[in-house]
User: Fold this.
Amino acid sequence: MSIYASSSRGSNQPDAKKRKNVDDVPRCFKGSALRFEMANKVAEIEKSSSSTGGIGSGRELMRRLLSERNQFPDRHTEIDQQLRDALERNVAILVLDMCGFSRLTVQYGIIHYLAMIHQMEEAARPAVSGNAGEVIKQEADNLYAIFDDPARALDSALDIFRAFDAVNSVVPPDRDIYGSIGIGYGETLVIDDKDIFGSEVNIACKLGEDLACKGEILLTSSAYNALPVGRYICVPAAFEISEMRIECYRYERSMFPRETV
Assistant:
């Protein structure tokens, strides 16, 4: 409704309530109408921004602040803190990597493997949500999820492998699904629940994609140290990769059976 229509209460203008466009408003009211519409637009933007904790989406906020950081490097401490305040969360990160991509793609073709990736995701997602986790993204044959604590991430990893075993029990051997998993824990930039960045994310990726063997779960030291004492048996391991030494823990077994509902 235009400003003219809203200000014509009690007038004899029969078509006043039908005015919807600025062009329908007499020339003397157009400036007020434009300001009124702009004010509404600003209000809508501010309302949507409040739900994301900043101006626009988290990704837009990050791009704007990183641009400012590059232009004003002397303000990096202030800008970094703004990013942390808006986007950083303390989470456990699970990174799942399917095994056998190159071999299976050469042997059966890319569409066959894409179908396997789809089946992997269908099996893994319930195991994530069932442990109060959230799938952040799925890229190629990798799946990324976050949890409140490493114990939930580890239980989810175990459930994922159980789901793979169930799938493998009914599909032909050429469609068997196997994976390796890395788990990290620490301060992480979570962007609109669609992307994640952080040191523990990087290490979890290294563990899950490059270092863990088929059916293996590797945890960063931070993730292992945050596990409940006495619930899981993990053994230390160390690797040299990308000119860095990674000390981690390999999951061996659980001390107590999972509670079933």
Summary: The longest helix spans residues 27-50.
